[in-house]
């Protein structure tokens, strides 16, 4: 089920068109209900009320705040990063600026003003600490970035290095606890396989993925294989939509489940590289958001199966579905039985031989 794009173009301007196409449609046609915008569960919470009351744009809400409060470190480290981003660390430059002291020189080198950049990244004594920690790359571009932008730039840094650099300098008494947290995080990250693995005998595995493009197109890709790695069916579809990546990934999972049922399979493993979707489906936790509308479709489509499991795999193990999602079909939808398009076939072979 999809919006009539041509009709919408006739009656709505571009802004409204995007807003409508961002709304996913459900094959179950559930009754309408009022929900809270900007909330993950569609219900009232203080955070969104505060942001709306302050007149803030949640679309401009800096990603760094999410990274800080979700960081797998002790509370002291999160609080420190929050104070850094809100410019409330009492460095000498700030104290002088607020007329609380007369001298703003760094107490270690006495060469430059003690700004947050100098105190934590640029002082010669501190530079050596970053090098000893093996985290010198985290201070790159510190002179041109705000604290929030700097923290956001750390997203590509190896997680273990990032966590160690955050906490070791400021909470030495909690080092052992921090290392234990890092080891736990490493274990949880490794729990999902990096490679595609065949399903049990008598069961098929259906991999699903989505691709969100900047021009208002969403691509969906689905591939089903048996316990020997042979392709049973594959499909690619392009839809006019302005969905979030999570909704697009959920739509791909719904499509995968419906295809397995249409082809008459009763035992299946549905696999995706979107951890959030797999977790929600496994817990069967339902709320009142657009995403939950799609997840409800996934659960409803699962009823014909005798046995259905959900599995998460890293992106490296979902390459076939990923390439199908980026494939441009001859029409809006294209289906293959017992084979895949030639440009996708090498990825099937690599999965089969474990590369």
CATH architecture of the largest domain: 2-Layer Sandwich
Shape: elongated
Radius of gyration: 25 Å
Q: How large a portion of the residues is in β-strands, by DSSP E?
A: 5-15%
Helix content: 40-55%
Instruction: Assign the CATH superfamily of the largest domain.
Output: Ribonuclease H-like superfamily/Ribonuclease H
Could you tell me the CATH topology label of the largest domain.
Nucleotidyltransferase, domain 5
Q: Roughly how many Å apart are the termini? A: 37 Å
Instruction: Give the count of helical stretches.
Output: 16
Count of the domains: 2
What would you note in describing this structure?
- The protein has 355 residues and is α/β, with parallel strands linked by helices.
- The chain folds into two domains: 71-189, no CATH class; 204-352, Ribonuclease H-like superfamily/Ribonuclease H (Nucleotidyltransferase, domain 5, 2-Layer Sandwich).
- It contains 16 helices and six strands.
- The protein has helices at 5-11, 14-21, 46-53, 63-70, 75-85, 92-97, 116-122, 124-132, 147-153, 159-168, 175-189, 245-262, 275-283, 290-301, 319-325, 345-352; strands at 204-212, 217-225, 231-240, 267-272, 307-312, 333-337.
- The chain has a six-stranded mixed beta sheet.
- A hairpin with a 4-residue loop joins strand 1 (204-212) and strand 2 (217-225).
- The radius of gyration is 25 Å and the shape is elongated.
């Amino acid at each position: 089920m999809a919006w009539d794009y041509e009709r919408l173009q006739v009656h709505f301007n571009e802004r409204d068109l995007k807003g409508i196409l961002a709304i996913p449609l459900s094959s179950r046609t559930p009754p309408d209900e009022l929900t809270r915008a900007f909330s993950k569960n569609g219900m009232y919470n203080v955070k969104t009320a505060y942001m709306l009351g302050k007149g803030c744009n949640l679309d401009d809400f800096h990603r760094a705040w999410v990274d800080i409060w979700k960081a797998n470190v002790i509370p002291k480290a999160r609080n420190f990063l929050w104070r850094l981003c809100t410019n409330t660390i009492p460095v000498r430059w700030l104290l002088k600026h607020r007329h609380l002291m007369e001298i703003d020189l760094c107490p270690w080198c006495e060469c430059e003003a003690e700004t947050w950049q100098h105190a934590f990244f640029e002082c010669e004594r501190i530079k050596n600490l970053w090098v000893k920690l093996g985290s010198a790359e985290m201070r790159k571009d510190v002179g041109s970035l705000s604290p929030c932008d700097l923290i956001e730039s750390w997203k590509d840094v190896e997680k273990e290095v990032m966590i160690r650099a955050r906490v070791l300098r400021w909470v030495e008494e909690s080092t052992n606890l921090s290392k234990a947290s890092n080891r736990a995080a490493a274990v949880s990250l490794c729990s999902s396989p990096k490679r595609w693995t065949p399903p049990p005998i008598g069961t098929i595995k259906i991999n699903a993925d989505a691709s969100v493009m900047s021009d208002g197109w969403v691509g969906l890709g689905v591939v089903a294989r048996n316990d020997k790695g042979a392709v049973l069916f594959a499909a690619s579809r392009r839809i006019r939509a302005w969905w979030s990546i999570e909704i697009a990934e959920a739509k791909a999972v719904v499509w995968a489940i419906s295809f397995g049922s249409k082809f008459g399979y009763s035992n299946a493993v549905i696999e995706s590289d979107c951890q959030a979707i797999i977790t929600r489906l496994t817990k069967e936790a339902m709320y009142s958001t657009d995403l939950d509308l799609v997840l409800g479709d996934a659960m409803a489509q699962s009823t014909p199966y005798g046995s259905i499991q959900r599995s998460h795999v890293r992106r490296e193990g979902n390459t076939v579905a990923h390439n199908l999602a980026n494939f441009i079909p001859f029409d809006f939808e294209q289906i293959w039985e017992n084979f895949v398009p030639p440009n996708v076939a090498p990825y099937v072979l690599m999965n089969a031989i474990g590369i």
